[in-house]
Design brief:
It catalyses: L-lysyl-[protein] + acetyl-CoA = N(6)-acetyl-L-lysyl-[protein] + CoA + H(+). InterPro entries: Acyl_CoA_acyltransferase, HAT1_C, Hat1_N, Hat1_N_sf, Hist_AcTrfase_B-typ_cat-su, Hist_AcTrfase_HAT1_C. It holds the Pfam family HAT1_C. Its main location: nucleus. The chain has a six-stranded mixed beta sheet with strand order 9-10-11-12-13-14, covered by helices on one side. Strands 3-2-6-7 form a four-stranded mixed beta sheet. The chain has a two-stranded antiparallel sheet with strand order 1-4. It is an alpha+beta fold and about 400 residues long. The radius of gyration is 26 Å and the shape is globular. Helices cover about 40% and strands about 20% of the residues. It contains 15 helices and 14 strands. The model has no long low-confidence stretch (mean pLDDT about 90).
Length: about 400
Amino acid sequence: MANMLGHLVVDGIDVTEFKLVRSSKDIENNETSFGPEMCHQVFGENENIFGYTDLKIKLYYSAGSLQTYLGISYSDKIDPKKLAGLKADDIEGEIRKVLAPGYFTNLDEFVSALETDKSFTPHGKLLHSFALESCDGGEKRTFEVYYCETTIPGFLDYHKRLQTFLLWYVDAASFIDVDDDQWTFFTVFEKYLSSEGDIQYATAAYATVYRYYAYPCNLRPRISQVLTLPPFRKLGLCAELVQAVYSHFIIMPEVLDITVEDPSDDFQRIRDYVDAKNCDKLPAFQPEKLYEGFSQEMVDQARSKYKINKKQARRVYEILRLKSTNTSDKTSYLKYRLDVKNRLNAPFQKKKLEMKKLEKVLKPDEYAATISTVGINETQNRLSGQYLAIEEEYRRVIHRLQHY
């Protein structure tokens, strides 16, 4: 039976197509299409869809306001009567659970709704505008960053449509509780001229930040979700977005520091770049200070000027010190490596001290069993690999610092 039905099982990623539509011409233009990076949060852990032949799923969004069209097409669908009651997966039912209400299933109605995008303007307060080189060498592209709170009229309806992208591009994503007014939002739009010469906006990226309370009367903002939509990646938008978040909060005296919730490797690299670029201007992070080692002065200046916490300030120190170190000089390079390895080794040393205490109170066989469980030797062997991985990450950040 499995062999007979194998052709009716498809990978959801392969059959799903996205578009950010600026005009009806984009619908027929294959170059405007892009695919999801994952779909297990919609179609299940194996990401498969069963029961259709020539299946295609189309999720089109108007570029500005993100009005949504869902189209599902196929040449054939299994008949439960002929296959012992086996039913095809309910595709629209699964997608309906994650789409904002009011989506279109009629393409002509969606095309008509594109007219409303001509009058769409971003919600909230304009924080920052910047220009980037066009990929084709043409005129520079203009982008704007806006700040929003949950009370801004119309924003939450827009956000319901925007957050649906998370499930296709961010693993373990979840929709936030917008009834909590401590959530704040930062959105990035491309500002462009339509074919008629009118100014219009296209959604490009966004971030959510939660304002955590810190005793006694302070705030500790935490960056939670960050997403750049695929057509706008590798332009430098995320770094501009992070800097806009920083600029908004660092002027507030009640803000202690700005943290990040469970950052991905890609986002941590962007965060490192922005923080290192900023701290590179501070007196405490100049080469002559870096060679003396990590200091409280660095912690204080990073926190007071850019609201960077101690752990992140240490990463910035290591990045900038590597940037300033002549790695052809064996002595200088060795000092740097030992400095980083000592930090990596600190938890291991703490564990060794704990084990020495246990050795005094445990019987030899109990102590041997504990050593085996804790895996100290394995931890020690892993340190070298950890260092090499960190230096590789730092070098990627340094390469970008040298070219900004």
